Amino acid sequence: MQYFQVSERQHVPLEEYKENFRKIVRHLKECSPTMLIVLITPPPIDEEGRQQYATSVYGEKAMTALERTNDVAGNYGQRCKKRRAGRKSF
């Protein structure tokens, strides 16, 4: 078994994330045009803690490069913020 497969399946490319956001917001607006929609950015990642946990569980088989980092999460957070700033872009 390869441990990294789960993370690869969970990853959503940024452009797909952006399109999914659009679809979700459009659908909600169609269901209720007066609905208040709150978009939340991804939370910060404890990179050191995630690495320590992976090492404690998988030992030497733990990935040396984390599959989630604050830099990557920041890209998704910026996408969410851009949506908020440009409300009509969806």
Care to describe what's here?
The protein is mainly α. It contains four helices and no strands.
Note the beta-strand portion: under 5%
> Uncertain regions: pLDDT < 50 for 5+ in a row?
1-6
Radius of gyration: 17 Å
**Quick one: overall form?**
elongated
Amount of helix: 55-70%
Q: Which sequence of SSEs, written as H and E, runs from N to C?
A: HHHH
Largest sheet: none
- Number of continuous helical runs: 4
Overall pLDDT metric: 77
The total strand number stands at 0
- Alpha carbon gap, first and last residue: 41 Å
Structural class: mainly alpha
Looking at this protein, list some descriptive labels.
disordered N terminus, 4 helices, single chain, mainly alpha, 58% helix, 90 residues
Secondary structure topology:
Elements: H1 5-10, H2 14-31, H3 47-58, H4 70-85
Helix pairs in contact: 2-4
Short description:
With 90 residues, the protein is mostly helical.
